[in-house]
Structure formats: structure tokens, C-alpha cells
Design goal:
The N terminus is likely disordered. It is built from 9 helices and 14 strands. Strand 7, helix 5 and strand 8 form a beta-alpha-beta unit. The protein has 280 residues and is α/β, with parallel strands linked by helices. Strands 1, 4, 5, 6, 7, 8, 9, 10 and 11 form a 9-stranded mixed sheet that branches. It has a 3-stranded antiparallel sheet with strand order 12-13-14, with no helix packed on it. The longest helix has 20 residues. The chain is elongated. The protein binds glutamine (GLN). Glutamine (GLN) binds next to loops.
Amino acid sequence: MKKISLFLLMTALFMTSCSKKNEVVKMGTNAAFPPFEYTEGSEVVGFDITMSQLIAKDYGKKLEVVDMNFDGLIAALQSGAIDFIAAGMTATEERRKNVDFSEPYFSSKQVIIVKADNTSIESVEDLEGLAIGCQAGTTGELYVQDSIPNADLKSFKTGIDASLSLKNGAIDAIILDELPSKEIVKRNSDLKIVDDDFCTDVYAIAVRKGNKELLDSVNKTILTMKANGAYEKLINCFMPVDGNIVIPASESVTTDKIVKLGTNAAFPPFEYVDGKDIVG
Ligand code: GLN
């Protein structure tokens, strides 16, 4: 009898984890932020997308990517339209009031983009009183509002839209995250970056406040990726060689703790050998 009920319990558990696989976990992003998220044909790809696929896999669900405006992401998360945000989103104290952030997964900074022939803007101090383009709802926009005296702030849906405005002379400069800026400049020889360390950013995944189950799972994925080489592979795949890549140290959990699980890998489907791996 005991054996039968144990078997039924194990079967029920097995079926639950299988049926979960058919459920989706929805990730919100803004696919105009290469190399983190961008489109290739009709597909949304990038560092954050591949990382989210690993997050979804570890969470036992299928990933659905929802592409939207960056400044609508937090409201979408709060309303339940999406389950997490992976959008090169900086973990700011202000945003922490409305979302829970994962372990940091990337360190970045803001840079200035100007016309290639501009000689008057050499640092952030030179931006005083000028027309500056930003992506709406970003830390770059906040920086302009808070720290550049008399700036004429122009907000755009994407950094790429801002770059078009800079090219046609409607604005004097753009403040945007470093790697997307490098992508823009790479594609536009009439633009250049002024690199002046004035504002650093640390990216993290955002989940709905209190969604501890998903947050724990995301953190586990990030820590595992950093430990098992998957993170490095992603960097090599998506980041420019001169990208000034910084992997931030994990904040709360250390990876040097090991939990040992005993099993007998000859009991499929619960545990068995698949190549070099023990799976089940
Ligand atoms: N890191 C910036 C922010 O969080 C910009 C992110 C983005 O535009 N995708 O505000």
C-alpha cells in the first residue's frame, strides 16, 4: 500500500512538472536596445532574450517575449500582463519601490553621443543649456532632468529615434547606455561617443513585488550561469570585443556553497544517465 501511494505521489509530481512546461512565463522587453534586445527579421533576439530562455527553462515554463515601450514595462509587470522584465533595466532605488530586482547581471554606464564633427562637447559639463535626447523612462532621462542645468530634454521612444534627430540637427547630444550607443555609432559614421564617466548602471531582472518563487528561480539561474560558463558564452556571442564588459559580483548569495544530493541514476524516469549527465 505504502509503495502504491508513493508511486502515485511521484507520478503526480512528475505530471505537475511536465504540465508546467506547457504554461508560459511572459517576459517584457523593449527590442531596440542592442546587444541586449533587438530584432532580426520578425524575431526578438539578444543577450537578455537568451538569458530569459534559460530563466524560463529553469522555471519549468515556456518563454513568451512581449515587446513594448520601455516606459510601459513596470506598469505591465504590476498589472500582470508580463511576469518579469529583461530589458537592460537598471536596478534603481526608485524602481525598487515598485518591483523586486534580481542579482545584478551586467554593469554599464551612460555615455554622450554627438555629431562626429562636434568639437565643443568634451564632457557632461558642456551639455548645460543644450537640447539633449534620451529614451523615455530611462536612467539617462533621469540624469538629464536631475543633473544637467537648463537642459532642453527631448524624450524619444528609442535611442535609435533619438539618433535620427541628432543626425538631422534637431538636438545637440544624446545620453544613452554605453553598449546600445556603441551599436548606434557603429552604424552611423557621422556620430561619435564622448566617454565621460558620469553615471553608472547595474542591470537586473525585475519581477512583481513579492513574487519570491520567480525571483528565487531567476537568481538561481543567474548564479548558475555565472558559475557554469553559460554567462561567458553569452557575452562572447552578443557583446562587442571593445564593449568594456563588466560582470558584477553577486549581492546576496554566494556560489561556493554546495548542496549534495544522493541518488541512484538507474531509476528512470526519476534519475538516469543521459550522456555524461545525470538527469530525470
Ligand atoms: N539602463 C537604462 C534604464 O534602465 C536603459 C534601459 C533601456 O533603455 N532598455 O533606464
